[in-house]
Write a structure and sequence with these properties.
The complex is a heterodimer. By secondary structure, chain A is of the alpha/beta class. In chain A, 35% of the residues lie in helices and 25% in strands. Chain A has 2 domains: 165 residues, Rossmann fold (3-Layer(aba) Sandwich); 78 residues, no CATH class.
Chain lengths: 251, 332
């Protein structure tokens, strides 16, 4: 068993009378490929927001590599290797992918504050940015403005920006949201090709993709973990079938 | 418009492309050579020319925060005025050496800018505009009240600026004043150009483009904002000091709301986020004021208002942005 890199312990969050996270405890071992599924409104994105620090939990704690990060701001968690992507593109429309990823590399290296040194002086950062873009098949469009890129490539850039932070834990919030079905399989092939030591938790609605790429599945219902198990166990679980059939989804 | 073939399949292409983004163009060199023309073509307008150079440096300082980092301000005259009073006061108290005067003004305005920046980075949108406006008004009234120090409404008098490098006296025609203001503008421009073409400049554009993403790539973006606000305040202070040294008087109007608003108008006219827009806007604004005030001294803002509306409606990226669209350069 690989060592645990990320844990949540009894996370609770409520918005008024609505409980969006109820005593959520999960543990991700190094190199995990876990899927987070559940019906709409189950609190999947909320859980990612809690783990990354966009939201503060009402109770519970989060550890990353054994360190309590519950009170840490978002950027500090990212610098410790806990990075996410967004369900809705959160990019820099008027920067090129090359500039955006170079910026992310410079931020990681602590060089983004150097106002006295020309950008082209950061050769290693630019090379690394280009490598990341090439890895995600974005080298051809590296110098086009982000807002001119086709939607599918913008989704890939979401991941490229996250990779530039050198994450040890990567949380992918519906990486293929809005991408046509045939393209989304390609996108997940790119994700599957990421280095094995990166721990990945992803949200995805397409069950065929979930069962192809996830080694374990966490099912979230009404803010609470219903079951966490291997895919075949999850697919055979009567409660899961009920949740999904009740929602008129095919499980 | 943007050439993509170079970067294809090879990181060298990426380097080349990035280098080209910050390369000096022919237009730039031609522009800076043209700034010398007033010496030969309009020797009677050198005083106006130095006013323009000072306004342009001030507008560049605002472009750094407004055009690049997206901090909208209606109170930047605060730093211009603080710089003017700092340079004026050390001269009144016996030290009229101009370059150290500039340095002193930059340090003081920068220090105040740094202190204020802790407040600035915590507010956004309308609140940000109101905070900058409020700080500007506060500073104005403070200077108004401290008559013993600033001269109040009479202005700060008795400034004597020593010759530059102990060689070049300030003359009645403004040869020295324009040379001095132009040289400082050029150096301020070079520094700003380096800043916007650095990784830090890229971070500022990132903040402007999507501040929500910045923490998610590990950026402490508030620190970036504080840095650029401090730099901008220092440059605005230098511009103010230039005015004090070239006119030998500091009036309260150096701190006025009008000056804060005018500089934003100049920047919007010229075009934000490209440095040259700040310079072009200052030229248009001050030449128009000079010419229109001759025709119609009371109502010249009418025409500025009309021009401003025309530019905002039909050239959203300012006059320079409009020109750049006409001159589409095709490179191999």
């Amino acid at each position: 068993m690989s060592p645990i890199v990320l844990t949540t312990d009894g996370l609770c969050k409520r918005f008024g009378s609505l409980e969006v996270a109820r005593d959520v405890s999960i543990a991700l071992p190094r190199g995990a490929r876990h899927a987070l599924i559940g019906p709409n409104g189950a609190g999947k994105t909320t859980l990612i927001n809690l783990i990354t620090g966009q939201l503060r939990p009402d109770a519970g704690r989060i550890t990353l590599g054994g360190v309590d990060v519950t009170a840490m701001p978002v950027a500090a968690r990212v610098r410790r290797g806990l990075t996410r992507t967004f369900q809705i593109n959160t990019l820099f429309p008027d920067l090129t992918p090359l500039e955006a990823v170079t910026l992310a590399v410079c931020e990681r290296e602590g060089k983004a504050g150097q106002f006295w040194r020309g950008l082209t002086g950061h050769r290693a950062a630019i090379d690394e940015a280009f490598d990341i873009l090439a890895q995600l098949r974005l080298a051809d469009v590296a110098t086009r403005l982000t807002r001119h890129l086709p939607y599918g490539q913008q989704r890939l850039l979401e991941i490229a920006l996250a990779l530039a932070t050198r994450p040890s834990v990567l949380l992918l919030d519906e990486p293929a949201a809005g991408v046509p079905k045939d393209e989304s399989a390609m996108l997940f092939n790119v994700i599957a090709a990421l280095p094995q030591d990166i721990t990945i938790l992803f949200i995805e609605h397409d069950m065929s993709i979930v069962f192809t790429f996830a080694s374990r599945i966490i099912v979230l219902v009404a803010g609470a973990v219903l079951i966490e198990a291997a895919p075949d166990v999850v697919s055979g679980d009567p409660r899961v079938r009920e949740v999904y059939l009740g929602q008129a989804h095919g499980a | 418009m943007v050439d993509t073939t170079l970067a294809r399949h090879h990181p060298d292409g990426a380097h080349t492309w990035l280098k080209r983004q910050s390369r000096w163009s022919v237009f730039e060199i031609a522009f800076w050579l043209a700034t010398l023309l007033p010496f030969f073509l309009f020797p009677t307008y050198l005083t106006l020319a130095s006013q323009i150079a000072i306004a342009a440096l001030f507008a560049i300082s605002v472009d750094l925060i407004l055009g690049y980092a997206g901090i909208v301000t209606l109170g930047h005259a605060m730093f211009f005025g603080l710089g003017a009073y700092s340079a004026g006061l050390i001269s009144v108290h016996g030290w009229g050496e101009p370059l150290t005067g500039l340095a002193f003004a930059a340090a003081f305005a920068g220090l105040v800018g740094f202190i204020v920046s802790f407040l600035i980075v915590r507010v956004q949108h309308l609140a940000l505009i109101m905070i900058t406006l409020g700080l500007g008004l506060l500073t104005y009234e403070l200077a108004n009240a401290l008559t013993w120090l600033t001269g109040g409404t009479d202005g700060l008098r008795g400034i004597r600026t020593w010759p530059i490098f102990n060689q070049f006296r300030f003359d009645l025609w403004g040869y020295t004043a324009y040379s001095y203001a132009l040289a400082v503008l050029f150096l301020g421009f070079l520094a700003s150009r380096r800043i916007v073409n650095s990784s830090f400049g890229l971070a500022l554009r990132g903040i402007r483009e999507n501040v929500r993403r910045m923490p998610a790539i590990g950026s402490d973006h508030r620190r970036h904002l504080q840095t650029i606000y401090t730099i901008s305040a220092a440059i605005a202070g230098i511009a103010g000091a230039l005015l004090a040294q070239t006119t030998n008087v500091v009036a309260l109007d150096a701190l006025s709301f009008n000056r804060s608003a005018d500089v934003v108008v100049m920047l919007i006219l010229g075009g934000t986020g490209r440095l040259y827009g700040a310079i072009l806007g200052s030229i248009i604004f001050l030449v128009a004021r000079d010419q229109l005030a001759g025709v119609n001294p009371q109502y010249w803002y009418f025409w500025i208002g009309l021009l401003l509306m025309f530019v905002v409606l039909f050239m959203p990226k300012g006059i320079l942005g409009g020109l750049a669209r006409l001159v589409v350069r095709r490179e191999p």
